[in-house]
Amino acid sequence: MVACRAVLDRALSSVAVISVLAVVGSAEPASAQGQTSRLERLIVEQQRQLDALRREVADLKKRDGHAPAGARVAKGAKSDARVASGVAPAGPFVSVGAVPLSWRIPGTDVDIKLGGKVKADFIARVSGNPSLGAQDLFAVAAIDTRGTRIGDDSTRFHARETRFNVELTKEYTPFGKARAFLEGDFFGAAGNQIASNSDSFRLRHAFVEIGPVLAGQWWSTFSDPSAYAETLDFQSSGGQTFIRQGLVRYEHKFSNGVSAAVGVENPEGRVQLGAAPIASTRDTLPDFVARVRYQGSFGHVQMAGVVTKTNAPNGLTSDVTGYGGTVSGRINVPLLHAKDNLRFQASYLVGATRFLQDTAANLPSVFYQAGTNRAVAPRMFGGYIAFQHWWTNELRSNFVYSYVRAELPTFVAGSTLMSTQYGAVNLIYSPWPEVDIGAELLYGQRQDRDGLKGNQTKVQSSLTYRF
User: Is residue 107 part of a domain?
Assistant: First the structure.
């Protein structure tokens, strides 16, 4: 900006000199016609110089707008103090934000960041039973065990996992850092494969975080996404605690990598009365969740617990309290390669079926026996273990195994889901960090209460670009 002022000073000086010349020229004895011609030439020359100066100033402003944020504000102690306090200098120029890959909104102290990914999936069932309405991912709990599936979903191309997000960050508030995040993908319910292959956009995440408080839709406090196995399959292991929902959470970070969080979260009790379909019930209390996490150079370990309440259907009086606990983590094991790691989770739940992926849509929170109205909350165990090995800095593989089992009352139907097993092995190549090219082999088995089983083998390849 100092250079801009120098150019403007030169412009004013030039205008002043040309104006003086014009006045002097007009005082010389000459004919009116000659005097007019001389003044016209001076005005033309003045306009030419002003146009050149305007272009020079514009170039300087453009270069100044692309300069690093620190260089732009080095104007003295006053500007430095404004930056230190988190207040951006006023002006129309965009600068680099404090958050990586973000930029500062002009005239504010708010950073904006756009992100997401485009993912193309190619899926084929190579053997085993078909799935009941789950062709875009590998849902083991949806494998047909009864021979009732009509048709074949053995080949599928789609890009539904494509997603987009926007993040707004304010570094300094009276309560600490503030952040707003919004994300969606195309795994909504609508869409068809007849002509346009359109898929509906749906909400994944939407929350506001101010200091230690987060409110909105985000991963449940019971979940641990940083320990999830890396699979090309969108569903991934059925033994993981996978749930996004509305919540209010408070988190406190202690020293030495320890943190604790408590949350109240959206409830969704579900019951099954006799042979009737699973139905939602009225919810009078939220779910209560707490967790403790330790993060260190070795990786991290997390423990969490949840308490739920399922209200009895109309006409029944037996409300049921559910509960559960989980331990998960990601441990660095640099035995074969510096980036090798082990990921795991193990959960035990009573009634809180919604917090385990394979039981969430297949088992109710409470079974009620027809006639006696006896209430039984199913007990479940679920977990997975995954080893990620890096062959080179660009080539890696993941080996995943998951197991889920539920203890069911004897009065439920024989076709009720009792257990699942899931296995995956893949090879993923990343020629640069934003791109993944991979292939994956998947195997799954479902077993019902009466012992009938269904199994399936799939292959999948994917191309992902993250931005």
Answer: no
* Residue 179 included in any domain: no
Give the pLDDT confidence score for residue 219 in this predicted structure. Answer: 98
CA distance linking residue 278 with residue 413, whole number of Å: 12
Cα gap 350→265, rounded to integer Å: 18
CB 287 within 8 Å of CB 265 = yes
Question: Which of 71, 121, 123, 126 shows the shortest CA–CA distance to 93?
Answer: 71
pTM across the whole model: 0.79
Question: What 3-state class would DSSP assign to 384?
Answer: strand
Name the average pLDDT for the chain.
86
Order of all β-strands in the sheet with 270-273 = 279-280, 270-273, 366-368, 375-376
pLDDT, residue 62, reads: 55
The helix (H) or strand (E) run that includes residue 43 is helix 32-65
What is the residue range of 36's domain? 2-65
- Each residue's pLDDT tens digit, 427-466: 999 999 999 999 999 999 999 999 999 999 999 999 999 9
Other Cβ atoms within 10 Å of 377 Cβ, number: 21
